[in-house]
Amino acid sequence: MTKLSTIQLRERDALAGDLRSLAPDQWRSATLCGEWDVEEVVAHLGAASRLSFPGWLRSMIGARFDPDVHNRRRLEEFRGSTPEETLARFAVIGPIRLPRTESVGGLGEMIVHSEDIRRPLGIKHDPDPEGLSAVARFFATKDFAVNSKSLVAGLRLRAVDTELVAGDGPEVSGRLLDLVMAMAGRREAVADLAGDGVAELLGRLG
After folding, report:
1. Which among 116, 102, 100, 96 has a CA at the least distance from the CA of 33?
2. Of 102, 128, 153, 206, which shows the fewest CB atoms inside 10 Å?
3. 150: exposed, middle or buried (C-beta count within 10 Å: 0-12, 13-18, 19+)?
4. Are 197 and 183 within 8 A, CB to CB?
5. d(CA 37, CA 130)
6. What is the model's pTM?
7. Can you tell me whether residue 170 is helix, strand or coil?
8. Is the pLDDT of residue 144 over 70?
């Protein structure tokens, strides 16, 4: 197993630990991931862990390349009859290996969707620094799942808690985790960023 896959499993374990403390009504709480509640995001992560790239492609073809239909079908396959059953299934998943077995994209999915759940619930977590840096570099240079590279094109990203700097142009600065969440399209994270490029980034996020 690669180092990034090992980090991803540690992030899975950390999220599962946080989820075990939720009250029953919190499983229906809103997240930063569109209209999905907490259980749906957990089921989405679990479903992604079961898919190889060929399996993902077959599912997308079956959904007529509508990602919403694809995601809904797969998460409903994964989720249990209760949130507790969904959590039990999630707690033992393997790494998400999309788009490729060695890709950092799966780690990005785990980190971003974990924050989608935690932030509205007020749960604090610091992801693995090495893994988070790898995800930030990936998002700044690749469009995968979200158009992160296109979103920050022509902007200079500077993390205040690490040495990471990416891109050129008007600056957007802040904690690395907030930069990653912003690159993933989470407008809520931009409130914690600073710099003369923030207005442009907000405009692109719509």
Report:
1. 116
2. 206
3. exposed
4. no
5. 29
6. 0.94
7. coil
8. yes
